[in-house]
Amino acid sequence: MIDRRDMLRVGAAAGAALLMPGRGFAQAAAFAPKPGQWRDFEVVTRLELTGQGRSQAWIPLPSVDQQDWIRPGKSDWTADAVSAELVRDPKYGAQMLHVVFREGEAAPAVEVRSRFALRDRAEDFLAGEKPVLAEAERKLYLEATELMPTDGIVRETAEKAAAGKASDIEKARAIYQWVVANTFRDARTRGCGTGDVASMLRTGNLGGKCADLNALYVALVRSVGIPARDIYGIRVAPSRFGYASLGAGSATITKAQHCRAEIWLEGHGWVATDPADVRKVVLEEPPGNNAIDNPKVVAARETLFGAWEGNWLGYNMAHDLELPGSKHRVAFLMYPQAEVAGALLDCLDPDSFKYTIKSAEITA
User: Fold this and answer.
1) 159 with 282, same domain?
2) If the chain, 364 residues long, is cut into consecutive pieces of 10 residues, what is the mean pLDDT of each piece?
3) In terms of CB atoms within 10 Å, which end of the chain has fewer, N or C?
4) How far is residue 228 CA from its own chain's centroid?
5) pTM given for the model
6) Residue 173's domain spans which residues?
């Protein structure tokens, strides 16, 4: 159990750090997301293909429905295609639009509009409603995947990180702190990374981006018996808390993909976490290459175990996903995917792939 006095002391220390003069954070609001007003958004994804041969595409749709922080709305689309249908991955429930274009189509294109509502979330660790996790869901979010084993070096690392901790929340927090302290955001990593956890630990190269660092956290936590999952999504609006690195920089969000992580804690349910974003603040928050005791880093490190800001759309939680109607599979579905003449295109090259994603907040 968490000692209330300890939590209050930590919160007071973090709050004091935010107000320290001369440290570059006094002008911004304290990083304290909490459930409040809902915000409505629309994301428009437009994809255009070139090349010869049969073409098809898969575009992620908002699939995460957690009524305390995200409410998916309607998605519709226009496409001059043989077929365009909403399909759902049977294992994780990930929804996507699967489009098959006419053979020989000169300029295959599709545009998808998705609406959804978001708000900030924050867990009150001093209270709880005692939710129950269904056994099938518990099993799913404890299992190993191709890139996220839960035995061997993964379990050994988790057990060392959580040594001496008794409760799930203590173990999860200790592993979170270990990931923040021992990893780094590597600007050279393409896209969001691949999430190859075992390779990271075997080589000792603990650098990467969100799909690497948060996958590492999920695998470590699963290995000690705590259900956990990645949520793959995209930033849709700037941060309201003064973090340039933790929000969309413009209405065009084509390269704003980001995955987050949740852990299941008895008495609380699914709890927000994001150690990868702490490392993003270290590397990218202006002026960049910040010290671990920088006030913005301290605030992010404290806040992102239990809370996150509602400026991010979660698409789905799917791993090792088979693309319907294709021989190809992807590690996760966070980017539009397409193939021409049976060859899967590089989803991390939207200029040659020709897709754009734009976001707008709906205020009327």
Assistant:
1) yes
2) 35 36 48 97 95 89 97 96 96 97 89 98 87 95 96 98 97 98 97 96 97 98 98 98 97 98 96 98 98 97 98 97 96 96 91 91 90
3) C
4) 12
5) 0.91
6) 4-35+119-315
